[in-house]
Design brief:
306 residues; mainly alpha; 4 strands; binds zinc ion
Length: 306
């Protein structure tokens, strides 16, 4: 029983540690991302083992798991069905590891191979989807590269994948009633966790980063006194409500929202030049004249009023 508790405590420790490193990575210390990945990988591994323990305390040991795998082969079924068959026969797993001081434990693949057999009895859907498995495999390959000093990733890759993994883990721990990740996260890490765990919040954070990066790229190398000449606005996107509409060369109006899944290009706030006097106004305030001008500003439209 002590062992069970330790796995949970260690999984949560590693997860919190991953968040700490992730925050440092976001603050510009790219090397910290590397540790965020290794801590997160460790946490995922432990959570998968916790899941195995919900089936049988001893299933996290390779020897016991191997016995299940062999049974699956003999019966020509999956590992979960084989485990259930053994359980119904009151098979004593503990017997297999008795006397071993520190028996070898299962791999991530083995634990996953069991979890992915779990099917919802009502909908018939698999509880663990392919996306989560793909993300775990991505993380594993990255961890291997990190350990062999040949890792290469962009900060954006890490942010997106860590976000997906955190959401996957949050769902997994909830699905199998292991623990509530949100409750276990340290208070000072809760904000970063929330952004990662909430797909929409995470996408908005990512969209804001894109805005900042483009702005920085545009102003880099331009002398301060010339920066005022750069025509660059950030508009509130009327479609998603975020302040994420920035210039985009591929857009007809010249602006596009950076939020993934939004990409809206239209806003009445986007400024255009009056075709008569040349002054810039929000396009929503402009009038079109038949057959002549598309954009006429309020001053030119109604000079008496000014
Ligand atoms: Zn938008
Ligand atoms: Zn005008």
């Amino acid at each position: 029983m002590q062992f069970k508790f330790d796995i949970k405590a260690n999984a949560i420790d590693s997860f919190n540690e991953a968040l700490v490193k992730y925050e440092q990575g976001q603050a510009g210390d790219l090397r910290a991302f590397k540790f965020a990945i290794t801590h997160l990988a460790h946490s995922v591994e432990l959570v998968l083992k916790m899941y195995l323990q919900t089936l049988d305390e001893n299933l996290i040991f390779s020897k016991c798991f191997k016995h299940v795998t062999n049974r699956a082969k003999d019966d020509n079924t999956n590992v979960l069905a084989a485990f259930n068959a053994l359980k119904s026969e009151s098979f004593d797993f503990e017997n297999l590891v008795q006397g071993h001081a520190s028996p070898h434990t299962v791999t991530v693949e083995q634990a996953l191979s069991m979890a992915r057999c779990e099917v919802c009895s009502i909908t018939g859907n698999h509880f663990v989807d392919q996306d989560f498995i793909d993300d775990i495999n991505w993380m594993k390959s990255l961890r291997n590269e990190i350990e062999h000093f040949e890792f290469e990733f962009t900060a954006k890759d890490v942010r997106l994948s860590v976000g997906k993994l955190v959401r996957g883990l949050d769902e997994f721990t909830d699905l199998f009633s292991l623990f509530d990740l949100g409750n276990e996260v340290g208070q000072e890490r809760y904000q970063v966790f929330k952004v990662l765990a909430d797909e929409y919040e995470h996408a908005v954070a990512e969209a804001n980063i894109a805005v900042g990066e483009q702005k920085q790229a545009l102003f880099a190398g331009v002398r301060p006194k010339h920066q005022i000449l750069i025509e660059w606005n950030i508009y509130t996107c009327p479609s998603c409500g975020n302040n994420t509409m920035i210039p985009n060369d591929d857009s007809q109006m010249g602006y596009r929202c950076t939020l993934e899944g939004c990409g809206n290009e239209e806003s009445e706030d986007i400024e255009v030049d009056c075709e008569i006097c040349g002054a810039a106004w929000a396009n929503g305030e402009m009038t079109s004249w038949d057959d002549t001008y598309t954009y006429v500003c309020p001053r030119c439209e109604n000079p008496e009023a000014w």
